[in-house]
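Good morning,

Both structures are done.
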Amino acid sequence: MPRPRKCRRVGAAPEVTYFKPRGVPLRDLTEVYLSVEGFESLRLADLEGLSHEAAAKKMGVSRQTFGRILAQARNTVAKSLVQGLAMRIHGGDYRLSPEQGASGPTVETVSAAEENREMNKIAVSSEGPGLDEPVDPRFGRAAGFVIVDPETLDFEYLENGAAQARGQGAGILAAENVARAGAGVVLTGFVGPKAFQALEAAGIRVAHNMEGLSVREAMQRFNDGRVQWVTVEEAKGPMR
């Protein structure tokens, strides 16, 4: 299991969390996700003009980590502007704190993902609506997702037909649907880099290599702590 990421400090929560092209209905738009720490990195580097070293110190991360957060945030914003996509500021691993030198105690808060999502829900890509159905090895073009409570195994089924019908962007749309369903973890066979980025931005962890199992068996593997978590490095590789 990978080492948990260090919680990043954020000076202030964004006041506006959604942007979209004017005149285009939401139903016709694809969303991209900008994490709250990504928003903070843009504020510090591009608005306040801080050096990477100074901004990293404010966020409580290394300079290298800050550089990665900032690069991903800039890429997300550029993609939204160039491709005409809606952008939602949401999720991440962070805590709110006053600016350095401000009076008063530090205010600790859970991330937006924890505030807006029941983190105990698990989304398993599935070929059918049940626990004994095979895991669908595809994420973006899975038939659907079984949304499971890992303690009780109570579940509901989320169809993925809209994503399947897309020529492009199926993984991103599937990620959006899983996030709206309240999942905090995805179990699947393979996930592409763009879908992984959308899931990561929404605060959703991804475990892969579940092909050949039933949904029930995948859940058992999760509950036993025997899943393989996708890392950022793997997501950049030749994943489908």
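Second structure follows.
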Amino acid sequence: MIKYLNNIPWFFFLTENVLIVLGVLAWGNYLLHRPARRMFDYTRYQWRICIVTTLLNTLVTFAGYWLWKHAYIRIHETLSWRVLTDALVLFLVMDLLMYVFHYLIHQTFLYRLLHRLHHEAIDPVPIDLFVLHPLETLSFGTLWLLVLLPFNMNLYGILIYLIINVVFGMTGHLGIEPLPENMRRWPVLKYLGTSTFHHDHHRQEHYNYGFYTSIWDRLFGTLKR
């Protein structure tokens, strides 16, 4: 598969990111049990920022492609146990690094500079996943590319991680909890960053800094009880 990726035009990456946005909004709309026509029922302000975020995510994606083409990022496609282990490593490493980055933003001048825009949503809706300051979008994208640089990662492990990233991002800004309360207490699920977990962060900003899990909040005492 990798051999077919050598000459991808730039608009492929734009199309990919536009489809991700539309997929998040459509899926979120479905889970919220809203009529299909309300999928685009957001303010012009939200749409403007969403469009900028999508263009910047396209830039980050293209930058990752350029780094791969010039052998700075190494990817292999061997079908082995590395598919799952690489996905798990990316999941945990990115969760920790984004926790640290997120915590530092809230504790420094960076909150007013970068992150306050995202926290204008007290009760977030799916489009708020893409309502970010441009510098914050680029910071997260840069962090992602830096994680890839030292390793030779499995292509399919990366794809699994990226799908998981979108799923968690969408559910975290859903505004409702799709999982029943008793299910959220299951041994593994209780450590995941559910919709309620991230919604609580939007309402009480000094808690629940994790993205995919509550592990780091539990370890460092920032979990909302």
